[in-house]
Design brief:
231 residues; alpha+beta; Uridine Diphospho-n-acetylenolpyruvylglucosamine Reductase, domain 2; Uridine Diphospho-n-acetylenolpyruvylglucosamine Reductase, domain 3; 2 domains; 5-stranded antiparallel β-sheet; 4-stranded mixed β-sheet; 26% helix; globular
Length: 231
């Protein structure tokens, strides 16, 4: 068992380099669970890809070795969705944290899944726009995790769930295939919109590797209304 684990880790090192495969006990515990702190995590290794091609190669290694994968974003969830407790490989997206493209006319941002929510909000603000999905964990949660959990946040009544703001995505499936879903289109009547299957799927259907996110104009003169109701 130990030799097979070493061989698996060696294959991962060949993909991303030795600096980006973690097997130390402290790192296994850090990356292997979310904020629940209820479940004991027991992953084989943590691997941090930097590209879609890396993710595809990791999926192929997992298939060849019959090992499960657990995607890991900011690990700020409270439902145990990012816990690896059965000798899985944790795929952490911390390195895939770039904004790849911005269309000011269509108000769209293409970004990698490891972009921190607060960074996306700041990018929108710097361009006189607004990304309204917000959480107390916005400084550490990642946009890929937000999509995988269809997070709502503190402005959900006004702006809706994360689902409302995802115009497209690329996903690596369990066979290593890349799906390019919706491609940022506002109107798309070409068939099934599988994008909405992956939103909220908690990583059970595939690994989200790229996102097209909608922005909106900044709110003007927002006000807070307090309503008292007699019981």
């Amino acid at each position: 068992m130990e030799s097979s684990t070493e061989g698996l880790v060696g294959q991962l090192v060949e993909i991303v380099g030795s600096d980006w495969v973690k097997t130390d006990d402290v790192e296994l515990q850090y990356y292997g669970k979310d904020w629940t702190n209820v479940f004991h995590s027991d992953p084989i290794a943590i691997v941090l890809p930097s590209s879609i091609e890396d993710v595809q190669a990791i999926v192929e290694v997992a298939m060849d070795n019959q090992v499960a994968l657990v995607p890991s974003g900011g690990r700020t969830g409270l439902s145990g969705g990012a816990v690896a407790k059965q000798h899985e490989i944790v795929v952490a997206f911390d390195r895939m944290n770039k904004i790849l493209n911005f269309d000011a006319v269509d108000r769209q941002v293409i970004c990698q899944p490891g972009v921190i929510t607060e960074h996306l909000q700041q990018f929108a603000d710097d361009n006189d726009l607004f990304y309204p999905v917000d959480f107390s964990s916005s400084g550490s949660s990642q946009i890929g995790g937000n999509v995988a959990t269809n997070a709502g946040g503190i402005k959900v009544i006004r702006y809706g769930m994360t689902r409302n703001w995802i115009l497209g995505m690329k996903v690596v499936t369990g066979t290593g295939e890349v799906l390019d879903l919706n491609r940022g289109l506002i109107k798309n009547a070409t068939g099934y919109d599988f994008r909405h299957l992956f939103i909220g799927s908690e990583g059970t259907l595939g690994l989200i590797v790229e996102l097209t996110v909608a922005l909106c104009p900044k709110p003007q003169d927002p006000k807070v209304l307090l309503l008292g109701v007699e019981q």
